[in-house]
């Protein structure tokens, strides 16, 4: 039976590759690399760099595919679902036309497949369609959350307190009720600017793990404008941006517990 192997490749640094991920790379017969146009060529090039460094299986074939454009009209959820189905159709065609019945298709996933990545949901679309049978294996990877905390030299959580991992879209709708700490990914709206707590602190990072990495931190009220301007300049320079940040609001006395 065919196999789809989903390989977490880390947050941008080829050295984030684990031994398990390198072994999984070399046990794959076909590797599928997504391309997103000239502006995001770095993302495809980083995957190719990983293959150049770690792929020792000469029989492995590397294929590219152009990622479909997600439509912006209509509802956000409908647009995402249609986009996922379009990518699922590419996976399905690749399995049927380029992967033998006893071969493995490797998908190189930025970060870790379980955290704000849709590859596993897209594979579910392929499975539900039922036109091709396959097994699946998932290899974990280092996330931008880990890379952010490591680069800033901070712990993700405070002692005994939870952390909400959310998106910019959600944060813009209001601070989460479940936590005083929010780790934000996929923020295209600069939602940190909606946080008005004057005591809130932020640890922000862009292009984490890559040679373009940028780090800023401090009191949010004092750093918001700097982060916005840095973000704008970096996006103009590189044509794209991926950033992640942690915001901490002061804990209440009840949350802090006894000294």
Automatic annotation (TrEMBL):
Gene3D superfamilies: Cobalt-precorrin-4 Transmethylase, Domain 1, Methyltransferase, Cobalt-precorrin-4 Transmethylase, Domain 2. It is an enzyme of class 2 (transferase). CDD domains: Precorrin-6A-synthase. InterPro entries: 4pyrrol_Mease, 4pyrrol_Methylase_sf, 4pyrrole_Mease_sub1, 4pyrrole_Mease_sub2, CobF. Its EC number is 2.1.1.152. It catalyses: precorrin-5 + S-adenosyl-L-methionine + H2O = precorrin-6A + acetate + S-adenosyl-L-homocysteine + 2 H(+). It holds the Pfam family TP_methylase. The keyword DNA-binding does not apply. GO terms for biological process: cobalamin biosynthetic process; methylation. Residues 4-223 form the Tetrapyrrole methylase domain. One of its GO terms (molecular function) is precorrin-6A synthase (deacetylating) activity. PANTHER family: COBALT-PRECORRIN-2 C(20)-METHYLTRANSFERASE (PTHR43467), PRECORRIN-6A SYNTHASE [DEACETYLATING] (PTHR43467:SF1). This is Precorrin-6A synthase [deacetylating]. The lineage of its organism: Bacteria, Pseudomonadati, Pseudomonadota, Alphaproteobacteria, Hyphomicrobiales.
């Amino acid at each position: 039976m065919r196999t789809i192997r989903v390989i977490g490749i880390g947050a941008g640094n080829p050295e984030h590759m684990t031994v398990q991920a390198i072994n999984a790379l070399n046990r794959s017969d076909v590797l599928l690399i997504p391309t997103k146009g000239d502006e995001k060529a770095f993302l495809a090039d980083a995957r190719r760099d990983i293959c150049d460094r770690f792929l020792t299986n000469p029989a492995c074939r590397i294929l590219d595919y152009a990622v479909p454009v997600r439509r912006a009209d209509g509802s956000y959820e409908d647009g995402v679902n249609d986009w996922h189905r379009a990518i699922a159709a590419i996976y399905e065609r690749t399995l049927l036309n380029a992967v033998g019945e006893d071969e493995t298709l490797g998908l190189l996933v930025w970060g870790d497949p379980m955290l704000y990545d849709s590859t596993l949901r897209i594979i579910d679309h392929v499975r539900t369609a039922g036109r091709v049978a396959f097994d699946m294996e998932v290899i974990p990877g280092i996330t931008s959350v880990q890379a952010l905390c490591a680069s800033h030299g901070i712990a993700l959580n405070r002692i005994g307190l939870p952390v909400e991992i959310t998106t910019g879209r959600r944060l813009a709708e209001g601070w989460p009720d479940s936590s005083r700490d929010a780790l934000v990914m996929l923020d295209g709206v600069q939602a940190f600017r909606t946080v008005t707590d004057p005591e809130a602190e932020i640890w922000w990072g862009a292009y984490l793990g890559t040679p373009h990495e940028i780090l800023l931190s401090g009191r949010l009220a004092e750093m918001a404008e700097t982060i916005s301007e840095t973000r704008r300049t970096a996006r103009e320079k590189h044509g794209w941006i991926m950033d992640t940040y942690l915001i901490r609001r002061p804990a209440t006395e009840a949350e802090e517990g006894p000294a």
